[in-house]
Amino acid sequence: MRTVVFLCLATVLTHAVLVFLHIAPSNAVSQRYSRQINAWVYPLFEQNWRLFAPDPDSVNRQISARTARTAADGTVQVSEWFDLTAVDKAAVEHSPFPSHTAQNELRRAWTSYLELHGGSDESPSARAVMMQKYLRNIAVARTSDHFGKAAPFIQLRVVTVPVTALRPDGTRTAQSPPKNLETRLLPWWKVTSDGN
């Protein structure tokens, strides 16, 4: 019994030290043992300081999706744009205890896609391919719920608008029509039944 308690305490202490070294400012110890620290921390225990010093978005993004399918007569049927961001906003606004997923799943998927792809939609790495599939699968799940069934092709559109400035009294300046509007149209992605 003492051995089990000792092993549990040693594991907890090791975990705490490695996570601390991961999130602490760079120092000689964390630099020297970075490979071992990262092997322990990633992917399950990743930490950052966003809880204490969040980095809020400086832009608002509206992510929409549309689907396409070939009809029996050979014509291509393209759906209307469906606002995926509005679904997230509605889930948060109408729930006294909104889930973290409802608040962040789509936004974090797009942010990660953008970090890995930049201005191009060509996936430069296996991680970029994985993030593209993740973003596509979120969109497919939500459009399937909305339209009633999955379509063989899906396309995303992201409209980015800078957050309006705050006035000294704490209110935001109104922009009509919005300035600095940026629209990014992603290519059509094939939807597979297995999500890959």
TrEMBL record:
Q: Which domain of life is it from?
A: Bacteria
InterPro entries in the cross-refs: DUF5819
Q: What is this protein called?
A: Secreted protein
